[in-house]
Amino acid sequence: MQQRKLATIEDVAAMAGVSIATVSRAVNEPTKVADATRRRVNEAIARTGYTTNAMARSLRMRRSNMILILAPDVGDPNFSNILVGLETEASKRGYGLLIGNTQNDPSREADYLRFISSNQADGLILFTGHLPFGFRQGPGTMRLPPMVAVNEPVPGGEMPFVGVDNFEGARVAAEHLLSQGHRRIAFIGRARGREINRLREAGYRAALEGAGIAPDPRLVIEGDGTTESGRAATELMFVRDALPSAFLCVNDATAMGVIIALNARRYDLPRQFSVMGFDDISFASFLTPSLTTMKQPRHRMGEAAMELLLALLAGEKPKSPEVLLRAELIVRNSVARHGGS
C-alpha cells in the first residue's frame, strides 16, 4: 500500500488561498492574522492533516500550546462563565485548555501536575486560592510555569490575580441596604480562611461604619458559602433572638438558604426581611422573591486572566500584577424599604 504523502505548508497555503508566510503567522502568531483568514487557514490545516506537523513543531519548541486550569469544583455556578472567557481569549491566541477538577483533593492536584512535568501545559490558571499541592520549592524540584490566580487570590500577593473588587462590591451592597433605611444588617458568611469572605465582610463593615453604625457582632455569622450554611445561619439568628431587618450574604447560594429559611417560617419577603446576595448566578432571578445582588463580570474576568497569562508566557511584564473588576448592583425584588408596607 502506498504511503500517504505528508501535507506541507505549501499545501495549506494553496488550499486557503494565502501565502506561506500567512500560514506561518496563523499557526505561530494567530493574533496578527485577521479572523476570517485565520479560519480559512485552520480549515485548510484540518483538511490536509498538516496539524500533525504543527504539533511536532510545538514539541520541538518544548511548547504544548495548552493551558492547565485547576478548579476545586467545576460545578460552581461562577466557573462556567469565567471558563468561556478563558477559552475565548485562549482560542484567539492558538491555545487550548486542560481542565483539572480537583474537588479539593490534594492527591488530585498532585496528579494534575504531571501535565506540567511532561511539558503538556505551558501555563497554569488557578481557581484554588493556593499553589498546587504536590509542588515543593527548592533546588532540584520541578519548576512551575507562569501562573495567574482567578476569582480567589493566592495569599502572599506575589502571584498575578484577576478577580472582582470584593471589598468595594460588598460596600456598595451594604450601602444599598442602608439607602433603603436598614440599620440592623446581618452579614452571613464570615470565614477567616477565605480571602473573598474576609474582603466582603470588610466592605460590609466599612459601609456601616461610614453611616455611623457600629456592627453588632451578633449579626455576623460564619458560613461556608453553601445554601445550607445560609439556612443554618438564619435559624441561629432566631435562636439568639437578635434579628436584623436585612441580610447581606457572602454569595447567592447563601442568600438562597436565607430565603428558604424565612419562607419556611412564612415571612412576607421583602416586606418583613430584605435579602441581598453577591455573584448574580443563573438562578438568582428565579428565586421568590427574585434576588437583588452584585453581578460579577465573569466573562471579562476569564478574558483578562488569559490575556495576563499569555503576556507572561510571551516574556512580557504585566502592567499590573492585580486586575480588579467592578461588580454591578442588580436590583430585583428581595430588598425593600425598611418599614414599608
From TrEMBL:
<feature type="domain" description="HTH lacI-type">
    <location>
        <begin position="7"/>
        <end position="61"/>
    </location>
</feature>
<keyword id="KW-0238">DNA-binding</keyword>
<dbReference type="Pfam" id="PF00356">
    <property type="entry name" value="LacI"/>
</dbReference>
<keyword id="KW-0804">Transcription</keyword>
<dbReference type="InterPro" id="IPR028082">
    <property type="entry name" value="Peripla_BP_I"/>
</dbReference>
<dbReference type="InterPro" id="IPR000843">
    <property type="entry name" value="HTH_LacI"/>
</dbReference>
<protein>
    <submittedName>
        <fullName>LacI family DNA-binding transcriptional regulator</fullName>
    </submittedName>
</protein>
<keyword id="KW-0805">Transcription regulation</keyword>
<dbReference type="GO" id="GO:0003677">
    <property type="term" value="F:DNA binding"/>
</dbReference>
<dbReference type="InterPro" id="IPR046335">
    <property type="entry name" value="LacI/GalR-like_sensor"/>
</dbReference>
<dbReference type="Pfam" id="PF13377">
    <property type="entry name" value="Peripla_BP_3"/>
</dbReference>
<dbReference type="InterPro" id="IPR010982">
    <property type="entry name" value="Lambda_DNA-bd_dom_sf"/>
</dbReference>
